[in-house]
Amino acid sequence: MKKLFQTLGAGFLVFVLLLLAACGGGTSTGTGGTPSSGSNLNIVFLPKAINNPYFDTAASGGKKAANELNGSFKQVGPSTASASEQVTWINNLTTQHVSAIVVSANDPNALAPALKQAMAQGIKVVSYDSDVAPDARTVFVNQANSEDIGRVEVQILGKQLNYTGQIAILSAASTATNQNTWIGFMKDELSKPQYKNMQLVKIDYGNDDDQTSFNDTLSLLQAYPNLKGIISPTTVGIAAAARAIESVNKGGKVALTGLGTPNQMRKYVKDGTVQQFALWDPGKLGYLAYYAASALIQGKITGKQGETFSAGTLGTYTIGANGVVLLGPPTVFDKPNIDQFNF
Amino acid sequence: MKLLRKQLSAWSWEALLVVLLLLTIVLGNSLSPYFLTPFNFSLMVEGLVEIAIMSLSMTLIIIAGEIDLSVASVLGLASVMMGITWNAGIPLWLDIIIALAVGSLAGLVNGLLVTRLGLPSLVVTLGTLALYRGLAFVILGSQAVSDFPSAYTNFGIGDVPGTLIPWTFVLFVLLALLFIVVLHRSWIGRQIYAIGNNKEAARFAGIRVDQVKLLLSVLSGLLSALAGIVLTARISSARADNALGFELFVVTVVLLGGINIFGGRGSLVGVILALFVIGGLRNALGLINVSGDIQNIVIGTLLVFSVLGPNIAQRIQSALSRRRLAAGSAKNV
User: Fold this and answer.
1) Distance from CA of A113 to the nearest CA of B (A)
2) Which pLDDT score is estimated for A107?
3) Confidence (pTM)
4) Backbone angles phi, psi at B215, to 5 degrees
5) 3-state class of A227 per DSSP?
6) Which residue of B has its CA nearest to A83?
């Protein structure tokens, strides 16, 4: 009996060893391993969750920056977007004394104690995409300026409609702060003289629910037969609206724009339902975040307002209030460029 | 003779776990120079406490022949209760009592469904896994409550002064000692084993089977809520998605610890050893930046192994003794 267990145990140990050896091997080849001795840029990205096309695109931007700066790039993270799992990862990275953690937070406050501990150990912390509590990071690389996002959507639609006709907005929840800020800037843009022949007839709230947004779009099309355009500043809304417009064969007759991801909207851009839509480019976001982290490590910046640093092909950036660095105007996607993006 | 063999196999499993633990340490050390540092151990232990606490009650439930898959959801619900009661201006000590009460109630519902309606606990708690997590999300949505007083959050991340031992780990050690005494040195423990070994026989022996099972369910809810209070303090955030999916780790720890999935066998010492094997493995993998998915593969494999291992051993064992019987050498066994 004892012998049996010994054999069984030995077999299992060998198995675990092999498994771990395989994992270890996979990691070092897959991520570039430890930094070379000449470089002190050991920068690790910690997204909300791994295996997410959005964050993978950001990671490819980070990798590109790492190549340019001769630094090391790694991406680690939980398999589901969980704040407590991210805390475990931050602790792992703190133990390893990486030179910087670039994090997109699942919760701004849950990560704060662990990140502060990392900072106390001399690790630089940069947040991107989704900020943490300001005292738990030095720089936040913000993908989007609310004003740019609001105005650019009206500008796209105005151009397509020759600045005439009725338009509607399909938003998410009526309480969503970011949506309401964007809609505020849309209204402000619409008050400019060149939009005097465009009327905003309705703001609808699809609650970021696919079915609700779909039905709301159909009701809009029925209630306003002369409707010329819809702006949907939400990735859920714009995809549902595109489907709704297509289902009643109004593609090309009712213009649609807003915020969407290329993978979601590719079909509708190619078949002409949507001409242009906007979103920031996560690749550039990751690229900029890596440059910001490296500038912090090399002491070129300390996170104070007004400091500037160079971000490779993106040019020079200035740190704003509260350590926020703004990526710049959103990217506009259309038929010619959409195939360059995969997220 | 049979008893002796059972004892032997139980000891062998724990011996195997000790070897596994040593191996994990050697492995962790060879994988990462940071593994064998007090700082790392402190952080690792801190991150394990919630799973550790839930493993204690899970051990008792599985020994009694049942299971509770809703533990992580009860944890989330308790965390949410901490958040909304604190937001409502209720003092912290009362928030903690409310969260513990809600957790116990959740356990009571599980227990009543199992004992009064005679439903299998696997199905009941699979249902309440979704139900309690759903409730947590309905109450707090995707928001978080984070403005807890520092005395509470310091308990979550602080160490005993002058050491690197987290306060929460001290809490676990005290609980573990209590559970070991109750399970292995008291009549309550003997009743739990008896129920798991043979429910009918236990009933004829005068054990109030349903009552014990109900108590264990409540206990599981209570400890899950306690784990929720610890986690909320550790990440200073009450969130509905706290500890999402942790039931996998808890069940894996308990089964790898040598607790028989069909009940009646195993010891808490094994479970605690398994806790450090799994915690150490995850930590070592994390230190070499192996992604969460691969870690899940390792944990899943360990889970399958810990059910399969003893099962195969038992089959081989019975096959061997049958052969010996057939050979007429039964008296030598």
Assistant:
1) 7
2) 87
3) 0.79
4) -60, -40
5) strand
6) B242
Closest Cα in chain A, distance from residue B39 (Å): 7
Give the residue on B whose Cα is nearest the Cα of A96: B34
CB A245 within 8 A of CB A221: yes
Tokens of A135: 């005292």
- CATH number for the domain running over A146-279: 3.40.50.2300
Answer for the pair A129, A106: CB distance below 8 angstroms, yes or no: no
Identify the architecture of domain B2-332 in CATH: Orthogonal Bundle (1.10)
Is some CB atom of chain A closer than 8 A to the CB atom of B123? Answer: no
Task: Name the segment(s) of chain A with CATH classification 3.40.50.2300.
Answer: 39-144+282-328, 146-279
Tell me, yes or no, if B252 comes closer than 8 A to chain A by beta carbon: no
Nearest chain A CA: its distance from B181 CA (Å): 28
Contact B31 A20 (CB under 8 A): yes
Q: Which amino acid is at A339?
A: D
Residues A324 and A142 sit within 8 Å (Cβ to Cβ): yes
Of B47, B289, B294, the CB nearest to A31: B289
Q: Do A74 and B289 touch (CB under 8 A)?
A: yes
Residue contact B39–A95, C-beta within 8 A: yes
Note the pLDDT tens digit of each residue in A198-224.
999 999 999 888 999 999 999 999 999
SS3 of A94-159: the string is HHHCCCEEEECCCCCCCCHHHHHHHHHCCCEEEEECCCCCHHHCCEEEECCCHHHHHHHHHHHHHH
Out of B5, B40, B290, closest to residue A95 by CB: B40
Asked if B37's CB is within 8 angstroms of A95's CB, the reply is yes
3-state helix, strand, coil in chain A (%, to 5): 50, 20, 30
Q: How many residues belong to chain A?
A: 343
Tell me if chain A has a CB within 8 Å of the CB of B304.
no
One of 1.20.120.450, 3.40.50.880, 3.40.50.2300, 3.40.630.30 is the CATH number of A39-144+282-328, namely: 3.40.50.2300
Structure tokens at A228: 């010329």
**Does ipTM top 0.85?**
no
Q: Which of B12, B156, B296 sits opposite A5 (nearest CB)?
A: B12
Amino acid present at A333: F
- Identify the closest residue of chain A to B235 by CA–CA distance: A110
Q: Give the up-direction half-sphere exposure of residue A302: CA atoms within 13 A in the CB hemisphere.
A: 1
Q: What angle do CA B39, B42, B48 make, to 5 degrees?
A: 140
Q: How many residues does chain B have?
A: 333
Give the model confidence (pLDDT) of B240-286 as tens digits: 989 988 999 999 999 999 999 999 999 999 999 999 999 999 999 99
Please choose, from the candidates B147, B143, B146, B136, the residue with its C-alpha nearest in 3D space to the C-alpha of residue B76.
B136
Tokens of A44: 């690790």
Nearest to A51 among B144, B243, B293 (CB): B293
Q: For B142, which residue in chain A has the nearest alpha carbon?
A: A107
